[in-house]
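Let us work through a complete example step by step.
Step 1: write down the sequence.
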Amino acid sequence: MKFGILTQWFDPEPGGGAIPGALARALASRGHEVTVLTGFPNYPSGEIYPGYSMRPKQDGWQDGVRLRRVALYPSHDTSSVNRMLNYGTFAVSATTLGLPVFRGLDAIWVYNSPASIAAPMWAAKYLLGIPHVLHVMDLWPDSIFLSNFGSRSLSRGLSRRALDKWCSAMYQSAATVAYVTPGLEKELASRGVPKSKLHYVPVWADELVSRTADPMPRSTWGVGDSELLMLYAGALGAAQGLDSLIEGLALVRNKVKVTCLLAGSGTAAASLQTLAIDRGLDNVRFLGQVPRGQMPRIMAAADLHVVTLKKTPLSLITMPSKIQTTLASAKPFIAALAGDAREVAIQSGAGITANPGDPESMAQAITTAAQLGRSQLALKGLAGRAYYRETYALDKGVDRIESLLISAAEIKKSKKNPRTLRRP
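Step 2: predict the structure and record it as tokens.
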């Protein structure tokens, strides 16, 4: 069949940006014609990646997939104006410059974040007659109002009501609404999405980052075999609550021999570096934004990974993409999480739990990991990989999405060729 993928994020962007690429390649390997409409890569730095140059549109092929990139305003800083420009310019470009590439498709899979993706999605549905599967990765508008993205004036009144109606219209227009965590089902149902339209489709790991690789030598960071090597890899933002990690490390500095690497960038990077200096921690290394291709070796070198997220009403139903990547990499992790994500840490057998935002709880988790030792931690990692294969494996996710896309396409065909009813 002829399927489309509509997403602002795509390879070589990391994290959630790796999800659409894996889906596109998998669908193409099953014999489908796949067309992707996306932007120029700029996440998380807010700068266009080397090897790419901004232009109104760019067509090409990648791994058997037709790819059209359209212009956007690159930005991922703390400015709400810049972020809205980033989201809005992609929506406009995708609708005006990108839409023609979708002509003749049977159905489209839509990565639902940000909510501005609705503009090209609706254009494809109502102008081209193409049904879509809406995959809810991030609950809008809650995600922006529980962050520092918008000003306080935007978090109440007409703006909130207007965005609620906008998102409700997105759910209503979709042939199917897929969701990535169990808690999202109840939340979406409470917002008027019929249960018959809801389908649980958890997502998979970043294929490139989670692949098996030779570990980078521990000596790269001056770490010996008797020392615990920890790794946090991902965005260094306010939502992650990484200050509790730094404070937790300060509490165990004289009790546990540990080095912690932080790989990534974000709005909280400078303040976290300052905090580590203030606490006199010479065992915390900030690696900055690491090329995606190098991450497998760094991940393989670490004895223990860290996944943190501040506790908010939204975090209870959020699943950080690094959980799947860590599980697939056969690595144990400290889970300073709540809700659905915390349950996965427990059920998988790979997680050592801590309370979000609690340095003493983090310190206890680090101590527990050190007491287990590297060999026992490795066994927890293997249990996590087995859980990943059973729950999140790419082929299982693609099976579900392929089925939903085929069903959406059949609805389109039935509308074009309605059965004539014979009168008795």
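Step 3: interpret the result. The two ends are 38 Å apart (CA to CA).
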